[in-house]
Amino acid sequence: MRPIVFLPGAWGNRDQAIGYWTRRIREGLSPPALHSFIPMGYDRDARTQKQVVRHLIEGIRRSVGVFEIRSGVDVIAYSWGAYLACMVGTLQPGIIRRAVFISGMPHIGFGLCNTLRFARAAPSCLFAALGGSFALRSTQEVHRCFFPGVVPDDGLEGEVLAHMHPERTSAILQLLPGPQQIRAESPIFRVLALRAPDRQDVFSAGANYQGGVDVTCKVMPDWTHGTILTSAMSDVTHRVIEPWFTAR
Q1: What is the DSSP annotation of 93-105?
Q2: Which residues pair with 75 in a beta bridge?
Q3: What are the Cα distances from residue 63, in Å, to 6, 26, 38, 177, 222?
Q4: Which run of H or E residues covers position 24?
Q5: 216 phi and psi, to 5 degrees?
Q6: Whole-model pTM above 0.85?
Q7: Among 78, 117, 158, 200, whose CB has the most other CB atoms within 10 angstroms?
Q8: Half-sphere exposure in the Cβ direction for 87 (13 Å, CA)
Q9: Residues 123-136: pLDDT tens digits?
């Protein structure tokens, strides 16, 4: 089984948090695939998207074999991780062979509509960001951002809050619309993109990766941005994601 590199989202990409955010995916993987599963952390000191991506490319090179680097690695990317995967493909063509995006952000960054929706869902972040870093601050904000319109398992929103860490404002601001935005190219590797309907996900709305060389987008009617933390993710990993990798 080829190594599968996991690229996490914002607020859950440090060593202690990654295990929590990947547990449902790991539950759905077969033993050979689980043995080859490599979660990647991000540089906590990075101040720009490009610094995050450069550190990520170095981490991938250290974590997989020479053959996989030459032929391209397989990737599962969640949320911000999908945007970063596209950036990796832009800066280092050929390093990613194919990828599954789970609730992935658009490759062009966080558009104006998504930005306004996020501001309504998590207003405290607007003030916290002025201090140089920010994360969600209440279970109500977690619910609005990760589980809108659904009733999650008891205590899940509190768990999510406990497994979040702040992100640097300077790096995240570069996802927002504006002349300083660093734009990734549309995916130049094969992609299966699984996401919630636009109305149910503040972060992945509008992510169709137009212009990608081989992109299949599937809208999952019952998903939200927090589905990665539910038993539904284990099922989709087992039935859809791993077979997609092994069949191609």
Answers
A1: TTSEEEEEEESPP
A2: 5, 99
A3: 11, 18, 8, 33, 35
A4: helix 15-28
A5: -115, 120
A6: yes
A7: 78
A8: 27
A9: 988 777 777 888 89
